[in-house]
Amino acid sequence: MDTSIAPHAADSHDLIRVLGARVNNLKDVSIEIPKRRLTVFTGVSGSGKSSLVFSTIAAESQRLINETYSAFVQGFMPTLARPEVDVLDGLTTAIIVDQQRLGADPRSTVGTATDVNAMLRILFSRLGQPHIGSPKAFSFNVASISGAGAVTMERGGQTVKERREFAIVGGMCPRCEGRGSVTDIDLTQLFDDSKSLAEGALTVPGYKPGGWSYRLYSSSGFYDPDKPIRQYTKREMYDFLHREPVRMKIEGINMTYEGLVPRIQKSMLAKDKEGMQPHIREFVDRAVTFTTCPDCEGTRLNDAARSSRIGGTNIAEASAMQISDLAEWVRGLDEPSVAPLLASLGHTLDSFVEIGLGYLSTDRPAGTLSGGEAQRVKMIRHLGSSLTDVTYVFDEPTIGLHPHDISRMNDLLLRLRDKGNTVLVVEHKPQTIAVADHVVDLGPGAGTGGGTVCFEGSVEGLRSSGTVTGRHFDDRAALKEKVRTPTGALEIRGATEHNLRDVDVDIPLRVLVVVTGVAGSGKSSLVQGSLVKGSLVKGTGADGAGVVSIDQGAIRGSRRSNPATYSGLLEPIRKAFAKANGVKPALFSANSEGACPNCNGAGVIYTDLAMMAGVATTCEECEGKRFQAAVLDYHLGGRDISEVLAMSVTGAEEFFGAGEARTPAAHAILGRLADVGLGYLTLGQPLTTLSGGERQRLKLATHLAEKGGVYVLDEPTTGLHLADVENLLGLLDRLVDAGKSVIVIEHHQAVMAHADWIIDLGPGAGHDGGRIVFEGTPADLVATRSTLTGEHLADYVGG
C-alpha cells in the first residue's frame, strides 16, 4: 500500500487555534489545543483560566451555534457577544458544565432539574392504579382547576357565541401550593396579650405607640383599646388578627384597616429576606415558623396523586427513595408497554450512581446541593450521550469531592475523551492535572499580573517547568508536630438532619477543626444543620460566641457592584472625600448623585439588538469613569474618586494607610481583603467578572469583621491554586491564634494535615453514611488508617 498519499483535507483540523485573545485580563493570548484529548488549564486563582476557556472558546462556540437558528428562535435564546479575539479556528460544538448553583426556587428539586420527575410522572400516569389522569396529575407544580363560560368568536363575518368548559387535573397539594411546607406566624412574637393596646401591647418592629401603624389598631373602634388582649371575645380577636381589608376614617384620615396577620404577611413576609434590615430580619426569623405541610406530609402532592400506586409504591415514596434504591426499583418493573421509558429512566438513575450521587433523592430541593453536587447533576445529561467530536468544558469538576471520589471523576473525564471528544477542564487538584494529555498553565500572577501562557505541554514538562504550578505540583503539607489544646467544646446531641444517625459529637473550641468524609456522608448536615442553626448545641466555653457561617452560596450583586461596594469599603472612602472637599458623600457614588448623566453611572452604554448580541460601548461623556466631570475635580491625597477605584487593593492599602488620605476605617477593610489573598483585585472591578474562588474569599474578608467567636467555612479551598492554599492555612492559623474557633468542612488533604482535630463522617454516602467514623488528631488518623480519609491522608503525607 502506498503511504505517500497526502492525508484527506478533512483530517487536517486536529487543533483548536486561538490567536490574540483579550477577554478580561488575557494579554493577547495565542494557543493551540489538541482535539480529542484531555487538556487541563491551571494557574493561580484570577490568572485568566475561565476567561480563556469559558469566556473565549466556549462562548464563541455557543454563539456560532445559536446563529444557525432562525431569528424567531434566537429571540428566545440568551444573546452572546463575540469575545475579543482575533482568530478562533477549529471550534466544535461546546457543552458547558459549570459551577453555577442550580436555582434555589422552592419548587425546583433534583428530579425537576434532571428530567427524572418528568419520566416518573409519565410512568405513573401509564401504570399507576387507580388511573387518575395525565402526567400533569402527578406534578406538584400544576394546580387542579376547572371553569366554564361563554366565548365570543368572529367566524365568517359573524359573531358567534359558544359555551366552553375545561378542567385540568393537577397534582399540587392545595394547602401548601406544592411547596411541602407551610408558614405559621407565632402570635406571641406579635403582641403581649397581658397588656392592652393603650399600654403598648404590639411588639412588631415599626409599630411604636403613637405611630400610624399603631393608631390603625388602637383607634379602629372594633375593640376596646384599654382592654387586655387576652380578654377579647372571639369576634374581637378575629377583627384584630384576621379581618379582611376595609376602608375607614381613623382620626379624620381615610385609611385601610386589615387584620394584623395579613398586614404583616404583605409588608414583611413577601419581601426577599436578604434585602431586609437586620432588625426586621431578626423579627421574621423569630415570628415565622416553617412547618411540614400537614395535608401532604411534605410530599407536595395532593391525595389523588398519592393514591395511585405501582406495586404498592406511590410517586411520593418513589421520589423520596435514595436514587441507588430507586434504580433497583425501576429495574424490577417488567412492563413491555413502557420499555423505552424504563430503559431511559434506568440509564439516568444509573448515571447518578456512577457519578457518585446515588445518595441523593429526587425530591431533594435543588437549592440545597453544594456547588460540586450541582455541577455533577448537570453532568448526568451528558454521560450516556452518543455524540462524539464535541468539546466538553468543565469548571473544577472535583469540587466537593473526597480524594476517594476524584479517581472516579477522572475515569469519567477519560471516558468522555475516549469516545472521541475534546475535554477542556479548569482545575487545581494535582490528582486531576496528572491524568491530562496536555496542560496549559496561565499566570504568572493574578489579575493584571496574569493573563499570559506560562507553559503548555505534558504533565512531566509542567513538573520541571519552574512555573508557580510546576514548583508547587508535588508539594505535600506535613502533619503538625504539635497540635493546639482546646478550651471548652460545643456539644451537638442527637443530630438527625438528612442522613445523620442520631449523632452526638463534641466540637473542641479555640482550635482548627476539620470535618471531612466522602461527598454525601453528612458533613454539611452536621455543621450547617445543627451548629449554624444552633438547634442542638449546648456549649461550654462558647461564651457569647456568635457563629459566622461562610458558605459557597453565590454573591448577590449586579455589574454595578464591585469589591468596594460589597465589602463596605466605599462608605469610609466617600466620607473621606466629602470631608476633604466640604461636599456631601452621595456625590462620590456612581449609583447615586455623582453618576454620569449620560450612562447613569454604568460607564458603558448598552444597545439592545433584539435577537443579536447587545453592544456595550464605552460612554463618551465620562470615558468609562462612571462619574460626572464635576465630581472628578474633587481630590483626596492628589487622586480623584475614579483613580481610587482603579487602584488595586494593595495600592489602596498603602494610599489610605498614611499621609493626607489616611483613613483607618478603609485601611482596616483593605487589610482584610489583602489577608485573604485578594491584593491584586481593583476596587472598582465588577463582581460579575470575579472567579468562583475570588468571590468566596471576598465573602470571607467581609465576614472577618464580624464579632463572631466561631467561624464555619464550607470548602474554602474551592477555586484556590496550590500556592494559595498555603496563604489560606496561614489565615486560618491567625484566626485561631486570635482566640477564634474555626470549623472547616474540607476535602483538601493539606487542610486536613494542618488541623488540630479531625471529625470524619461516613463510612459511605447517603444511608451508608451519617455516622462519625473517627475523631481525633490528624496524626492518629494517619496512624490507624481506619477510614477512607485516613488512607488517603496517609498516602498524601507519605505516612
Notable traits:
single chain; 28 strands; 6-stranded mixed β-sheet; 799 residues; globular; 28 helices; alpha/beta
Account of the protein in words:
This protein is of the alpha/beta class and 799 residues long. It contains 28 helices and 28 strands. The strands form nine sheets. A six-stranded mixed β-sheet has the order 5-14-15-3-16-17, with helices on both faces. Strands 22-25-26-20-27-28 form a six-stranded mixed β-sheet, with helices on both faces. Strands 2-1-4 form a three-stranded antiparallel β-sheet, with helices on one face. The radius of gyration is 30 Å and the shape is globular.
Intertermini distance:
57 Å
Q: How many E-type strands?
A: 28
Give helix % range: 25-40%
Main β-sheet, spatial strand arrangement: 5-14-15-3-16-17
> Nearest-angstrom radius of gyration?
30 Å
What profile does the largest beta sheet have? 6 strands, mixed
Compute the average pLDDT. 89
Range of strand content:
15-25%
The low-pLDDT segments are 540-544
Shape: globular
- Summing up helix and strand content along with how strands pair, one would put the structural category as alpha/beta
**Count of DSSP H/I helices:** 28
Summary, kept brief:
This protein has 799 residues and is an alpha/beta fold. It contains 28 helices and 28 strands. The protein is globular, with a radius of gyration of 30 Å.
